[in-house]
């Protein structure tokens, strides 16, 4: 008679932060699916190079959501200012990601307007927009909101920060980089 060999436990598979995991507690197994705190934006976002998973926002140092529409004159004035700010902030590496949420009235209007923007976009879909608006309420556009890493709102007046302070950094924790950028922008505006 051979002794019962010890049961071999399988090696755990490497887990990514957003993969399905099994947790064991008191010999009971629980399944959980960790999702991105930005999943209210939809499963995928649009980039200039195609769709990307919303989880790309999880590694961004800062995230802002930009509500706008091509038919809105203040939006069309603010978008180029924000685009210049975005390009300058991210010049030496990704420091902030912006996600455009369109309030346009047609796919064609959305595509034309999004074509002028350098950042990501939520899908142009009434259900996606309704989900986002359920999470973030506002009364007018353009509206730029800065998000915390957990998906909660950090600051709801990003437009005023960019407009009134001459593209000075949004309140993203006021890191050294953003303070230096604010100083550079002020100095350029005095030249």
Concise account of the structure shown:
With 191 residues, this protein is an alpha/beta fold. It is 30% helix and 22% strand.
Describe this structure in words.
There is one protein chain. The protein is α/β, with parallel strands linked by helices and 191 residues long. 30% of the residues lie in helices and 22% in strands. The chain is built from five helices and nine strands; from the N terminus they run βββββαβαβαββαα. The strands form three sheets. It has a five-stranded mixed beta sheet, with helices on one face. It has a two-stranded antiparallel sheet with strand order 1-2. Strands 3-4 form a two-stranded antiparallel sheet. Strand 3 (44-47) and strand 4 (50-53) form a beta hairpin. The radius of gyration is 21 Å and the shape is globular. Mean pLDDT is 75; it is low at 9-33 and 166-191.
Structure keywords:
single chain, 191 residues, alpha/beta, 5-stranded mixed β-sheet, 9 strands, 30% helix, globular, disordered C terminus
Instruction: Give the low-confidence spans.
Output: 9-33, 166-191
What's the story with the biggest beta sheet?
5 strands, mixed
Number of strands: 9
**How confident is the prediction overall: mean pLDDT?**
75
Number of discrete helical segments: 5
What topology emerges from the helices and strands here?
Blueprint: E1 20-25, E2 28-33, E3 44-47, E4 50-53, E5 63-68, H1 73-89, E6 97-102, H2 107-114, E7 120-121, H3 126-135, E8 143-147, E9 153-155, H4 158-164, H5 176-190
Parallel strand pairs: 5-6, 6-7
Antiparallel strand pairs: 1-2, 3-4, 5-8, 8-9
């Amino acid at each position: 008679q051979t002794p019962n060999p010890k049961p071999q436990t399988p090696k755990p598979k490497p887990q990514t932060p957003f993969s399905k995991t099994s947790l064991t507690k008191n010999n009971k197994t629980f399944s959980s699916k960790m999702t991105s705190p930005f999943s209210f934006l939809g499963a995928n976002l649009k980039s200039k190079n195609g769709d990307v998973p919303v989880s790309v926002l999880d590694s961004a140092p800062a995230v802002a959501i930009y509500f706008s529409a091509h038919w809105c004159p203040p939006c069309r004035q603010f978008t180029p200012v924000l685009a210049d700010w975005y390009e300058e902030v991210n010049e030496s590496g990704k420091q902030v990601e912006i996600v455009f949420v369109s309030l346009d009235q047609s796919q064609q209007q959305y595509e034309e307007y999004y074509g002028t923007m350098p950042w990501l976009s939520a899908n142009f879909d009434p259900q996606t927009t309704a989900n986002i608006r359920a999470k973030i309420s506002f009364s007018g556009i353009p509206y730029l909101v800065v998000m915390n890493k957990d998906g909660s709102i950090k600051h709801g007046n990003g437009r005023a920060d960019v407009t009134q302070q001459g593209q000075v950094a949004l309140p993203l924790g006021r890191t050294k980089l953003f303070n230096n950028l604010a100083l550079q922008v002020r100095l350029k505006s005095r030249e």
